[in-house]
Amino acid sequence: MADSDKLRMAFRAEQDLNSYQMKQGLGPKSDSVLESNIDERADNKFREATGIKTGREAGASGSNRKPIPEDEGGTRDSRGRLAPAGEYEGTGGPEDKVKLESERRPGDQDTLNLQDLKNKGLAR
């Protein structure tokens, strides 16, 4: 691609981004725009696929139940299902991490005391 073509393409992109409609976001917004704040129409402005993820799959779910897609390093189990994010947590499960934090920071408001650990079955 020649330098003049690159300059022309950059000029058009700048004009498009500086338009009143692009700045104000006029017109109806789709559900995926409302969920992820990413406009899927931006993908149509490029010749090649951009890999933009929109909608619910674009953001974090805040839980460990959401499966990790294969293109992001997720794996499938023996039944062909994607493994949930909780399986990639590292060594020790959530109970071990709660117990470890409680031992490291006794008396902290965010940790459990010995009685709470016993009630949850994490200590004897």
Descriptors for this entry?
mainly alpha; 5 helices; 124 residues
Structure, explained:
The protein has helices at residues 3-17, 20-24, 31-36, 94-104, 114-119. It has 124 residues and is mainly alpha-helical. The chain is elongated and about 75 Å long. The mean pLDDT is 76. 35% of the residues lie in helices and 0% in strands. The chain is built from five helices and no strands. Among the domains are: 63-91, no CATH class; 93-124, no CATH class.
Number of alpha- plus pi-helical segments: 5
Gap between N and C termini: 70 Å
Q: Unreliable stretches, pLDDT < 50, 5 or more residues?
A: none
Beta percentage is: under 5%
Largest sheet: none
Count the strands?
0
Chain-averaged pLDDT: 76
What's the shape? Answer: elongated
Order of helices and strands: HHHHH
What percent of the residues sit in helical stretches (DSSP H or I)? 25-40%
> What is the alpha-carbon Rg in Å?
24 Å
Structural class: mainly alpha
